[in-house]
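pinging the channel bc i need a second pair of eyes. not urgent but kinda urgent?? the chain im working w is below, pasted from the shared doc
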Amino acid sequence: MAKEKFVEAITDMETDFAQWYTDIVKKAELIDYSGVRGCIVLRPYGYAIWEQIQKEFDARFKATGHENVYFPLLIPESLLQKEKDHVEGFAPEVAWVTHGGEEKLPERLLIRPTSETLFCHHYANVIQSHRDLPKKYNQWCNIVRWEKSSRPFLRGIEFLWQEGHTAHATAEEADSEALEMLEIYADVCEQYLAMPVIKGQKTDKEKFAGAVRTYGIESIMHDGKGLQAGTSHYLGDGFAKAFGIQYTDKENKLKHVHQSSWGVSTRLIGGIIMTHSDNNGLVLPPKIAPVQVVIIPIAQHKEGVLDFAKGLKDRLSAFRTKLDESDRSPGWKFSEYEMKGVPLRVEIGPKDIEAGQAVLVRRDDREKTIVSLNNLEAAIEAALDDIQNALFEKALKNRERRTQTAYSIEEMKEKLDEKPGFIKAMWCGDVECENKVKEIAIATSRCIPFEQENVAETCLCCGKPSQHMVVWGRAY
């Protein structure tokens, strides 16, 4: 008899990485495709992962004095036009609303690609005095950017994100805010998503449209491509001057506020997939997995097995635990929850009950352990902690293995062609050299790391004295 095929296989990542990724997001039941290109349906399991990520960030935002708000989806064109660099940066991605029913609107409305302009309009109305500062707002919402190509979570026309917008009395306060939020992003990515990140500043070419400085966190995926996991911007007072956001200071002098904005999105789910998953499906870090432990009863038709498993689920209420009591075979269930990346499986059958034990199976390395039921909670907690740490260490080793140094553009291209990853190389600060790297090596500056290394005295492009060590790479 042919072996039962429990869960349809996925493409090996070594064969076709893009198809492997698509197979996982579909077969792990994270998304479905909608009738509009670039707009996906987040299925319950996919949305549950986002809820876990959202929960971790939201707690940190509130702990640092931020308040959640909600602003309209539609923005008048006149507001976008107020900040020159901002409008030029976003114009190619804007989706316009031109009619209300059959009636043509007197002014076009854009569907928010980001909300700086709306927040600025509001701040101009509510900020008058230094007593009104700082304003520290955050918004959880959807945005629309009309991308030419799309891939679930990584690049879409509509996606979910959070966007923080703050107003401060001084440049120092606003810049400090942007850096503080970057630290929060890095902490959640590393401690909860088990994704190692490089913190740094973006070059002027890569910074956010309208910002004075943009900071970012960069991570590396299984295939060696980089992923911008989050960005934070010091906006200066440019938006404040364009929108008339002024306050009277303690000496009763009129001044413009200084601002920051910052955001992460459902792109992080794509990052989790491409950092941790394997050829058997999704692998989720325990701290953000919607289901941390799944209980699979063995021979559940036998008297007492299902009742015992239900009692076990009640015992394990300290963890996000699921009991699968469906009539599918244990083999099918094993494959199903492996595909969905559930970190830990508990198998319990008649012989286990008699022996006072259970079998624990890890998703990351498939290691099986027999544990006493008297010690079950402690064993599960220890296993989940170990899985979390092991995933981070594995991802960190992948980044180290894929990080090289180059001293010329030609060497950079050769190394990236042979082994995709991050390249450390020196740069003079001239945008012409940055453009040349993109043209010849097909790589972009990912960030100027806060932790600098002097790998050479001269620029990899022009030979002039170097100003920064830059991490370069090919990215999503």
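so The longest strand covers residues 158-168. and The two ends are 45 Å apart (CA to CA). — does that match what u expected or am i reading it wrong
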